[in-house]
Each structure stands twice: as C-alpha cells, then as structure tokens.
Amino acid sequence: MSQRYLTVEEQLSLPLVNGTVISPDGKKLAYTLRRTDWDGNKYMRTVVVYDAESETALHVSNDEFDCSLPDWSPDSKRLVFLQKTGEENKNDLMIFDFELKRSYKLLTFEQEISQMKWSQKNDGLFLVAASPESEELKKRKESYGEFEYIDEETKNSSLYFVHLSRAMKKYSARFELPRDMRCEEALFDKLTDGKEFHISSISLSPDGNYIALLAPPTSDYNDFDSAKVFLMNEERELKELPLAHPRGCLFSGDSKRLACVVPAGDDPWMDNGVVEIVDLSDLSKRRLSVGQDLNIEPVAWTEKGFFVNWIEDCTIRLGLLDEEGHLEGLTDEDQMVMASSVTPDGKRLAIVMAGIFESPEIYLDGRKITDIASIHPRRERVRKERLSWKSCDGTEIHGVLNLPTDFDSSRKYPLVVLVHGGPTWTALTARITSSYYPIEQLVSRGVLVLEPNYRGSEGYGRDFRKLNYRNLGIGDYEDVVSGVDSLIERGLVNGDRLGVMGWSQGGYISAFCATYGKRFKAASVGAGISNWMTYHVNTDIHQFCHRYLGNNPWEDPKIYELTSPISYIKNASTPTLIQHGDSDTRVPTPNAFELYQGLREMNVPVRLVIYKDMGHNTVKPGLHRAIMTQNLAWFSHYLLGEPLEGSFKMTDALSPG
User: Do the Cβ atoms of 258 and 276 come closer than 8 Å?
Assistant: First the structure.
C-alpha cells in the first residue's frame, strides 16, 4: 500500500483529546489525552491540565493507568480523577493538589463509577456508581451457583457521597500510626439504595444544597423513556419534578431554577429537544422553544444563557440560547464540536473541535492550545466534500464523499458506501478517523467512499428523522442507491465496482443492500440486524422495534418480514463479510448466524468472523485492527482483484520480512 496515506495501524494510533473541564476560577483547563497501548491491547487516557496564565501543560496522572472523569474542587486548588489499576481495573479516586504539586490516592472504590462530581461545599465527592451485590445474592450464589431472573434483577446505579475529611484522615494515618492503632470512620454514605430507581446522571446546584437526579426506573435501556427527575435536598429528601422524558439537567446560577431538555411533543425518540425551566419554589414551568428545526442538547447554564449543541448537516455545532428562545451559533458548518466546557459567568469557553482540514484540537477562548497534529505521522489525508441528491421518492439526501488529494474528475473510480449507525447519527465532514472502517486506506488504493445521511439521520429536522418509520431497509436502500447513481451519472464512479459496509444500523442497511438488490459486488455487515423478529426477541432494547416498526412481530408480522434482509435471501448474490462480537447484547449473534447460514445455502460467497469477548463495540485496538484489516482485504479483493486469503487472515502481516 502507498505510504502517502495512513496505514491501519497509524490510524488507530492517532492520539485523541476529549473531556474538557475548566476550573471554576477560569485559570486552568483539565482534559484527557487518549493514546493506544499496543502492548496492553487497550486505549489509555491521561489527565492533562493546561495553565492559561503560564501557557503550559502538565500531565497530572500516571501514564501507566487509564484515567478519566476529571473534576475541580470549588476553590480550583485540587482536581479529582478516576484511575483504573490492576487486572481487575480497580477504581482509584486520585487527587492532584496544585499547592503541593503532587497527586495521591484518596481511596479505592469497589463498584464501577460512571460519574464523579466535587461537592460545591468542598466537603466531599458525589459518585454515581453500581450498587454492590446484596448479601442475599451472595448467599444464593454460594448455595446454588450463578443464575439470573431476567427483568427481575436489574443492576441499578446508586448515588454515594465520599466524606473528604474522613478519607484524607485515613490517607494521612497510614504514615502516622500502625493499622491496629487507628480509629477509622465510614468513608462514604450510600444516598440511594438502587432498589427504587437507577441513576443515570446527576447535576449539583451552585449553592451546594441540591442534587438533581436523572433516574429511570431501572438500568434496562427500555425503561429510559420513563426516566424521572428527582430533587434531593441537604436532608437527603427526594422530590419529583414535573418533567416528562428528561435528558440532562442544569441549575441556574442562583440555584432557584432547574432546566431540563425534554421532547417538544410526546415522542422522545423523534421529537426535537426543547428547554423546560422549573421554578423550584413552586414547581411552575416555562418552555423555551427554538425557532429552528433543531434537536438541542444542554452543555451549561451560565450568566450569558444556555450553551447548547446540536447536529446539523454533517457537523455538530455549539450555540448560545437566551431565555427568550433566541439561538446564536458559535461555530460554523466546517467546525465540529466534540466536547466543551464553560465557566459559570460564560466568559471562558473550551472546545474540543475538528474541522475539514484539521484533526481534533482544544481551543480556549478561540485560541488553539494543543498541537496533537504535530505528533501525527506526516501523511496525506482524504478530502471530504458535502454533496446532496434526490432519492427515488424525491426526498433530498445529503452525505459526505471521501476523495484522494489528487482526485481526477475525468476518471471513473470504484466506490464503497459506508453507512453510519443509529439511525439517528450522521456522517461528518470533520477530519476524524474510524476505528472500524478503512476509509483512508481504501482511498489510497483509488476507491472513493460515500457516507450517506439516509432518512432517519440526525441533522435535518424532525420530519426527516421520521421518514424511515415503518420504512426501514427499503427507504434506506433507495437513499443509498440513489446516491450511488448520482455519482455514476456525474461520471465519477464505475457502476460495476461497488461495495457497501456499515456497523450496527449501518450493518443492517448493508445486509439489506446485499440481499434486496444486486447492485453491489461486495458487502460488509458489522453487528447488523438480519431479521427484525430475531432482533426483537434477543436484543436489550426492544423499544427500538416499537419506535420504528410500530408494533411487535406477533401483532404485525408483515412489517417485520418486509423490512428484514433475510426475507430476500433467495435474491442474494453479493459476496458478504459478516463481523460480530460474541457478547453483543444490542444486536445479539443469532442475527449474524442467520444471515451467514442463509447466504451459505444460497451459495453466495460469505465469511463470518466472531470476535471473542466483544460486545456491540470494542475498546481493544487489536480487534479494531483486525476488523479494519479484514474489511480492507475484502473490498480490495472484490473491487480491485487483489488476492484475499493472506491479507484477510492477516498471515501476510505476520510473515517474516
């Protein structure tokens, strides 16, 4: 392969910045830097602090451990972060003290932590973490072995409060007294029992008197639509707030009001998000509706107003929403916001942002403070261009075309369509790389890659999101094929050398393209649905079928049959690669085996790869490397005529020399 472009290994090794948190005084910025540890087959995050006054960066965590969830003390003098250590990935709560200029382990927490917030009264830490296994369950395991009552034994997260003074006292005591001479107190309190509800996230009031809990009934994803918002006071009493289908809460600066994004209508899956503000004194509400057809998500409530983000036409934007509902965009169509943080007064803003020509970097008040690109390999990168076309029913479809830097418009290129998942996600124009699909490597071999934002994609309004309701597969197929045809008509693509690939919902659409039609010479189905009936009864998110197909398969079997790739298996002729994790609960493996066996019995070339101990996604760079290498080999063989076996099974790469 030409070294003008990134190799698979170089692509997976690119560092990534994220998780920005500005200190309350606005003088420092904490963020995470993710790097690839090939020896440990994992991604490792380091916590970095940038000092705005000295313009210097300091790594405050140990590079040998994965560290995340940084949060500042109210006085900006200390930073807490989570450190994963040991083979069991123990949860160490680490504190970096900027006056002492050192870090120390406050304590080790047994349960998995998903959120960590420093108390606004500076007296402790609030943790959202898994509830411990009950004594009753432990005894049952000892007596009978391990089993589970499905839908009856949910594993809910609870809220904990770590007493800072007690934990500090215990930390100091190890250097002062033998263990048998210490009088130790309980280091933390469990504030919710994990039985009445699950906690997905929390928000703290600036005065330190209240905690807002976003709480679905259980940790089962199917219950998240029924989430409630509870307000916890200093006495740990709970009050339910009148908010339906909430997603994210923010307190006002005076702690007297709570804002929450809720759906504009009754459909939490399809409706746009709007801001509802609850007066905590009398629970009265008022709603801020954005005039544009946008689906906003909250970032922060400041003295200047609400910082919100939204997906719009192949990018993620950031804006400022005032309390009259007026929205001012702070980024443009060529900038993609991956994360952001802002001070309470709204005067200092940090953004992790990527663009068409720049990989993700951190900007503080509009000034770039990182230079991650300088440690990238010096390679050419694909060009990304927006384009649009009309689908078969006249619907306007948008997408992104990946081109080589030396693109020749007089030449007809092979084409692979990369279909994003979701379906409410979007293809992005920003210079970010995939961990599953070899876009750069295909382009380096003279293959164009089209990423369509098919009907149902985010970024084009509520009505567009609803276009694939009871129209999955068929409508998606037409959107994909019409995009391919538009490029063929422009003379850019060779219609005899077409491929399609995708993961999750993108895998489903790829499977549909491989069975419903005969346009494609190769397909790759990653963690895709092959039969909606099979999916519905095996998945951990049964609500998906109800939201998109309108009913269950027993009441309406016809729609399940009409939209399933397996229904068209007798029509199939496209050589298909199927990739699936053996521990996938979102799209369980029966979908992969059903499609595999169907294609085999129709004598269609098919390969099935099952990845051990992998769920719907993986966090292991080695598996990402295998997935990308197999896809590259598959399409290079069927579209470019290159040999398959050595590269597909990766024996070529392992051979000496």
Answer: no
Secondary structure class of 287 (helix, strand, coil): strand
CA atoms within 13 A on the CB side of 632: 27
Nearest of 611, 615, 605, 513 to residue 565 by alpha carbon: 513
DSSP class per residue in 506-542: HHHHHHHHHHH-S--SEEEEES--S-HHHHHHH-S-T
**612 is written with which tokens?**
């051990």
Is there a contact between 523 and 510 (Cβ–Cβ < 8 Å)? yes
549 neighbors 579 (Cβ within 8 angstroms): no
> Residue type at 18?
N
Structural contact between residues 342 and 302, judged by C-beta atoms closer than 8 angstroms: yes
Mean pLDDT computed over every residue of the chain:
93
Instruction: Give CA–CA dist 386/453, Å, rounded.
Output: 11
Rounded distance between C-alpha atoms, residue 592 and residue 38, angstroms = 29
- 574-595: per-residue pLDDT in tens? 999 999 999 999 999 999 999 9
pLDDT of the residue at 549: 94
Token digits of residue 251: 């307190």
Tokens 């020399």 correspond to 657
Bond from prior residue into 246 cis (ω within 30 degrees of 0): no
Q: What distance in Å separates the CA atoms of residue 460 and residue 293, rounded to the nearest whole number?
A: 8
Q: Residues 525, 444: contact at Cβ < 8 Å? A: no
Nearest residue to 69 via CA among 127, 132, 155: 127
pTM: 0.94
User: Tokens at residue 269, please?
Assistant: 């899956």
